[in-house]
Each structure stands twice: as structure tokens, then as C-alpha cells.
């Protein structure tokens, strides 16, 4: 009877070890999945930041510079508005000539 109790104790230890191992594997798989999701979010954020940069340079060329400041943006908007106004005047003068 002593052998039988020792065998069931070994079986219990084996089952407990298997459960602990499975739990550890599950925890590791979940942490790896979270790490990958986090990396994807960082990569997406970097891509969005690169897309928000302005200028004539390729997207990757401005990676070391900061985005345009508010005053620079206002100056660019003002320049664009002036260019639009010039084109509008030219179109009006063309339409009055015909």
C-alpha cells in the first residue's frame, strides 16, 4: 500500500508540474502577443507622424526634424491664400476678355 500512495503522489506532482508549465507557457504567449501589438502601435504611430510632415522632401528624409511650428503653418496658409487669389484674378481677367 505504501508503493501505491507514493505512485499517486508522483502522479499528482507530475500533473501539478504540467499545469504550472502550461500556465507559464500561456503567460509567455500572452506577453509575446501584447509585445507584438505594442510594437505595431508604435510602428503605426511612427508612420502617421511621418505622413503628417510637410515639405518637398521624401517622407524618410525629414525623420530627424520637428514638424512645422504654428507660425510657419500660418505663413504657408497665407502664401497659399495669396496664390489662390492670384489665380482667381487671372481667371476673371480671362473671362472678361472673352
Fold and architecture overview:
The chain is 80% helix and 0% strand. It is an all-alpha fold. The longest helix is centred in the first third of the chain and has 50 residues. The mean pLDDT is 79.
Q: Report mean pLDDT, rounded to a whole number.
A: 79
What shape does the CA trace take? rod-shaped
Largest sheet: none
CA-based gyration radius: 33 Å
Helix content: over 70%
Structural class determined from secondary elements: mainly alpha
Number of strands: 0
What is the CA-CA span between the terminal residues?
115 Å
Q: Which regions have little confidence, pLDDT < 50, spanning 5+ residues? A: none
Percent strand:
under 5%
Task: Name the helix and strand elements from N-terminus to C-terminus, one letter apiece.
Answer: HH
Give the secondary structure arrangement, pairings included.
Elements: H1 2-51, H2 70-97
